[in-house]
Amino acid sequence: MSIFDQELKRKGTYSVKWDMLKDVFGTDDLLPMWVADMDFLPPDAVLQSMKKRLQEPPFGYTFVPPETARIISNWLEKRHSWKTSAAWYMYSPGVVPSIATAVRALTEKGDQVLTMTPAYPPFFSMVEQNERELVLTQLIEKNNRYEIDWDDLSEKLKHVKMFLLCSPHNPSGRIWTEDELKKISDLCNQEGVYLVSDEIHSDLVYRHAKHVPAALAGDNAPHIVTFVAPSKTFNLAGMQASAIIASDEDVRKKLQEDQGKQGFFTLSTFGITAMEAAYSDGEEWLEQLIDYLEGNLEIVRKGIGDIDGLYLMEPDSTYLLWFDAREKGLSEDEMKEALYQKAKLGVDTGEKYGKGGEGFIRMNIASPRAMVEEGMARLKKAFG
Ligand SMILES: Cc1ncc(COP(=O)(O)O)c(C=O)c1O
C-alpha cells in the first residue's frame, strides 16, 4: 500500500474542497474533485519540522531569514537547473496576491494586461479588479494539445504592458517548451512588456516532460518576474507561503512598494518553517507522489475509453485534468445537472476558465486511487 492510499478525514477541517461544496455547488453530497489541493499528507519531514517549531513558543513577530532564499534557490537549481541569486527573492502569502502585486506595481490603471485563455480565473479577475484592461489570446487546439497563436500574441504584445503566463498551464497541464518560452521572452523584451510567469505547478511534472523556468529560457532578463510556491508541490496551500523572484533591482523595488502599501511585512512562522522543510527535505516524497499521480492518470486513461464523447487532453504536468466534453453537445447547465445532480461529482465545468473553456471539465486527481476510481465511475454515470 502506498502512503498516498491513506484516506484522510478532511470534512470538518475548514477545507475549501470538502467543506464548501454547498456554497459552491448548492449541495454537499458530492465527491469533491475540484479545488487544487491534494487529499494527501504533506511530507513527514514537513510535519516533523512544524511539530518541532510548535515546541518553541512564543510565536511573536518573525522574519524570513536569508537561509530561506538559499533553500529555494538550491531547489530550483537541482530540480530545474535554474541558478538564482538570494538577492532576487521576495515573499508573498500566495501566488494570487503576487499576481495582484505585479499588476499594481508594474502597470498603471487603464493599461492593458495580456493573458491566455482558457486560464485559471484569477488571471482574469486580478487584472480587472485592479482596474486594468484585460486582453486575451486564445490557445489553439491542435492534436488534442494547446498551441500558442503566435500571430495573435505578437500583435497584442505591441499594445500591452504585461503578459501573465501560466507555466505550466492550468487548466490543461501543458508545459511550454524552452523554444516557446524563449520566443515569448524575446517578444516581450522587444515590445517593452513585463513577462510575469506563475510557476506554481512547475514541480508536478509527469515523467515524459520537463519544465523550463521562463526566466532560465529568457536569460534572467530584467523584464521577467517568476512566482514559485511549495503549496501545490507539497500540499501546503493553507500555510500561505510563496516566493517572488525578480532579477532586476528596480522591478523588485516597485513590487516592494506595492507590498509596503498593503502593510505586508512577512510570512507566518509556520509558513516559513513548512516552506524551508519542504524544499530542503521533500524531494524523495515528491518523487513518490509523481509516481502515484502517474498511476492515477493511467486509471483515468483507462476509464475514459468507456465514456463516449469525452476526451482527456493529455497533461505534461499538474494533477488537474482537462476533459473535452463538447461532442456531448450539452449546455453548461445541462452539464452541471449531469455532474452534480445525476452523478454527484464535484468537478469544475469549463466556462469559468474563460473563452475556449466551454464544454470542458476540470477534474483533480490528487486523491487516493480508490477515490479516483470512484470519480471515473461517476463521470461515466454523468455521461455514459
Ligand atoms: C496557476 C495557479 N496560480 C495560483 C494558484 C493559487 O495560488 P495561491 O494559493 O498561492 O494564491 C493556483 C491554485 O490553483 C493556480 O492553479
From TrEMBL:
Keywords: Lyase, Pyridoxal phosphate
Aminotransferase class I/classII large domain residues: 42-379
Entry GO MF terms: cysteine-S-conjugate beta-lyase activity; pyridoxal phosphate binding
A Pfam entry, by short name: Aminotran_1_2
Statement: the UniProt record of this protein carries the keyword Lyase: yes
NCBIfam families: C_S_lyase_PatB
Enzyme Commission no: 4.4.1.13
Protein name in the entry: cysteine-S-conjugate beta-lyase
Organism whose genome encodes this protein: Jeotgalibacillus alimentarius
Record family assignment: Belongs to the class-II pyridoxal-phosphate-dependent aminotransferase family. MalY/PatB cystathionine beta-lyase subfamily.
Cofactor dependency: pyridoxal 5'-phosphate
